[in-house]
Design a protein that fits this description.
The complex is a heterodimer of chains A (about 120) and B (about 110). Chain A contains no helices and eleven strands. Chain A is mainly β and about 120 residues long. In chain A, strand 4 and strand 5 form a beta hairpin. The mean pLDDT of chain A is about 95. With about 110 residues, chain B is mainly β. Chain B starts with 8 loop residues before the first strand and ends with a strand. The chains are: A mainly beta (about 120), B mainly beta (about 110). Chains A and B meet through strand 5, strand 9 and strand 10 of A and strand 7 and strand 8 of B.
């Protein structure tokens, strides 16, 4: 069974840092591109970042560029999101999602259960 | 990148068909056939329903179908069932090599 399990969420003060992890199982992680997508409380989905299978191609949403860093460890079947200079508006449930498609064009499937990040003083 | 525009809510009676629209620009929906649709029940993670405008993944009911015309994509749910009550989001690849989601539509089964 394909499974994605996020962890690392929690309460952090504005300006602080947090590192999210996503543990993958049930598929060949090393050949799969991955994404982070977030959802602020009561609102819609927002794409955050994409990383190709070998980490050679990375994209970020403008809202997080320069503050967030996506990375992966294929030996550990894990995806990461390092979040620095956190702002109130970064408060959201963060989902990791496997990418389906080719050359960075496609869809997100499946999704993990999400981890909640709360930025507040 | 502005969110794609979806109606806030759509409703229908059991057995009826409903259509959810997703309007973007030539830089996203209109420029590429990489539109996907997701269903999200309260407190749950989103689930892929349609990929590449009209492809239905295995396991997804054939009551769900997708299409696109110009800058607007659409998701149609036929034979509406109580279990279809959820939030639905579209997503599109963009000319900036990023992704944008729609504003979301709450589907209510009357």
């Amino acid at each position: 069974e394909v499974q994605l399990v996020e962890s690392g969420g929690g309460l952090v003060q504005p300006g602080g840092s947090l590192r999210l992890s996503c543990a993958a199982s049930g598929f060949t992680f090393s050949t799969s591109s991955m994404n982070w997508v977030r959802q602020a409380p009561g609102t819609g989905l927002e794409w955050v970042s994409y990383i190709s299978s070998g980490s050679s191609t990375i994209y970020y949403a403008d809202s997080v560029k320069g503050r967030f860093t996506i990375s992966r460890d294929n030996a550990k079947n894990s995806l990461y999101l390092q979040m620095n200079s956190l702002r109130d508006e970064d408060t959201a449930v963060y989902y990791c999602a496997r990418f389906g498609g080719y050359s960075g064009r496609g869809w997100f499937d499946p999704w993990g259960q999400g981890t909640l990040v709360t930025v507040s003083s | 990148q502005s969110a794609l525009t979806q109606p806030a809510s759509v409703s229908g009676s059991p057995g009826q068909s409903i259509t959810i629209s997703c309007t973007g620009t030539r830089s996203d929906v209109g420029g590429y056939n990489y539109v996907s649709w997701y269903q999200q029940h309260p407190g749950k993670a989103p689930q892929l329903m349609i990929s590449d405008v009209s492809n239905r993944p295995s396991g997804v009911s054939n009551r769900f179908s997708g299409s696109k015309s110009g800058n607007t994509a659409s998701l149609t749910i036929s034979g509406l069932q109580a279990e279809d009550e959820a939030d639905y989001y579209c997503s599109s690849y963009t000319s900036s090599s990023t992704y944008v989601f729609g504003t979301g539509t709450k589907v209510t089964v009357l």
